[in-house]
Amino acid sequence: MRIPSTLTGLVVAPDDPAYHLARTNYNSRFAPFSPSYIVYPKTSDDVGRALMWARRYRIPFRARSGGHSYEAYSLLNGGLVIDLSLINHIYQSQSTGFWHIGAGARLLNVYQTLWDKANVTIPGGSCPSVGLSGLTLGGGYGLIARQHGLCIDALVAVTMVDAQGRTLVSSLDQHADLFWALRGAGANNFGVVTELVFCAVPVGLVTIFSITWPWSHLAAVIQAFQCWADPSGLDHRITSILTLPARSHGYIRLVGQFLGTPAQLQPMLRPLLEIPDHSEIVQVKSYIEAVRHFAGLGSDPECWLAQGVPNHDTFKNTSAYAHHMLPGSAIAAIAQALNDTPGPASLVQLGQMGGRIGEIRPEDTAFYHRRARFDLQYQAYWTDPTQAESHIRWVEDFRQRMSPWTVGAYVNYCDARIEDWPRAYYGKNLDRLMHVKRRWDPRLVFRYPQGLSQIMAPGCHLEDASSFWTDALPTAWPTEVKSQWTMGPWL
Ligand SMILES: Cc1cc2nc3c(=O)[nH]c(=O)nc-3n(C[C@H](O)[C@H](O)[C@H](O)COP(=O)(O)OP(=O)(O)OC[C@H]3O[C@@H](n4cnc5c(N)ncnc54)[C@H](O)[C@@H]3O)c2cc1C
């Protein structure tokens, strides 16, 4: 196949042996996609050329970093995938001390390099292969979040290629509106990010803990966890995740990390340890060993895994936030859902928030849900394709059933079934986001099914609606497109 000469970097076409792997999403719930090309830029200029090529030939495109989008939003059929994985440098600026990280770097590589070079880290997520860009642009939650905030809270600047193919830097001092929007709503909405700059924090030894109870204690454990995990009351050095699996598992488990010693931690765990029949593991590790444990790469992955289920990558996940303590009726609803699962790998995780996350105001970055007590991630995994429908339905029913006691959703746990996703993801920040979108991408060059473009022109991510992609665009919208608009109350 003839590859367009204006695309620079490594280009993979359908007849390339690398194509099959390159068109596959992490989540094998999705069949392999059929993009026309997958380009691997090596520089921001390559990214700019890819973008201009796509615009010139009216080809839809998506940016991809780690390829872990829950809804495969970094892939598409018949378009261009701009894969950032070759832009993966990690170095410290001698003048500022900040860490410059290429958009295609993956989490474990970032943690390992920061640790090896300077015993520092950034507050990211747990899965080793998740892309730093996708994670950061939606917020980025992990097991030091209550002490150091979300990943975006350590971000000091972002380099991005905009809709005109220009490379620009945004920070608190430059293009501050864009920098605000990129911190929580940055995925495929305003440009293709090529570099993230972070202020890293020192780390050394940490204490990790895992407490397991029989499943029959579910109600007592949720109740105790809620009281214990008081957003501002509990020591910020603790961040933990409560995993509530299907009843057939027989147990429930809290895993967490404390940025201090076991002796300091023990009295803090007392309210949880008062619930009988528990078994408890408390270990001191170097920070990087703890990262590997929570990533499922330690000696006992079953005990420590902080996200999902080991060795399963066919799944449907979704989320919501709890701003208040769950009442007894909500706890009963959780018990009922877990009592009646479509398969054994069905669960909900409660990720503790508060601390530094909540000290930052919801309007200070595009990430809105800062005041939540915890997030709930409803998850179902399966291997047999015939089980897909029952698992997907269970996840959706569970989310709906909990809706009287929860709000919103986490954009990084994106879910195509959430109807009012703009408000669910962005809450009261949506209006301001639309202003930034209109300023930086007035022609809706950046699109995907749950992108901000969809709010202005529903259906615009579809290939047949790509008629207004070129520079030759009229300043007024073509009437056939305009007639499809549904103006939201925020416009
Ligand atoms: C196993 C697993 C564990 C996870 N654990 C955590 C966790 O601990 N904490 C947490 O907060 N989240 C977690 N997540 C969610 C994760 O943050 C999101 O799935 C995230 O979007 C993945 O980023 P990615 O780069 O790997 O994905 P991709 O599929 O490459 O990208 C995700 C989205 O970002 C856009 N995008 C990617 N790169 C760029 C770029 N350079 N410029 C502009 N847009 C871009 C894509 O177009 C797509 O819309 C987990 C996900 C999985 C599958």
Please provide a brief summary of the model:
The protein is an alpha+beta fold and 491 residues long. Helix content is 29%, strand content 21%. The chain has 17 helices and 18 strands.
Structural class: alpha+beta
Bound molecules: flavin-adenine dinucleotide
Number of E-state strands: 18
Tell me which CATH architecture of the domain at 205-312 and 323-364 and 371-380 and 400-410 applies here: 3-Layer(aba) Sandwich
Q: What's the average pLDDT? A: 91
CATH topology of the domain at 205-312 and 323-364 and 371-380 and 400-410: Vanillyl-alcohol Oxidase, Chain A, domain 3
What does it look like?
The protein has 491 residues and is an alpha+beta fold. Among the domains are: 10-83, Uridine Diphospho-n-acetylenolpyruvylglucosamine Reductase, domain 2 (2-Layer Sandwich), CATH 3.30.43.10; 205-312 and 323-364 and 371-380 and 400-410, Vanillyl-alcohol Oxidase, Chain A, domain 3, CATH 3.40.462.20; 427-482, no CATH class. Helices cover 29% and strands 21% of the residues. It contains 17 helices and 18 strands. The strands form four sheets. It has a seven-stranded antiparallel sheet. The protein has a five-stranded antiparallel sheet with strand order 5-6-10-8-9. Strands 1-2-4-3 form a four-stranded mixed sheet, covered by helices on one side. Strand 13 (238-245) and strand 14 form a beta hairpin. Helix 3 (107-118) packs antiparallel against helix 9 and helix 7 (218-228) crosses helix 11 (328-339). The protein starts with 9 loop residues before the first strand and ends in a 9-residue tail after the last helix. The relative contact order is 0.12. Residues 463-491 have low confidence and may be disordered. Bound molecules: flavin-adenine dinucleotide. Flavin-adenine dinucleotide (FAD) is lined by residues 26, 62-70, 73-74, 84, 103, 125-127, 130-131, 133-135, 137-142, 187-188, 192-193, 307-308, 412, 448. Residues 26, 62-70, 73-74, 84, 103, 125-127, 130-131, 133-135, 137-142, 187-188, 192-193, 307-308, 412, 448 line the site of flavin-adenine dinucleotide.
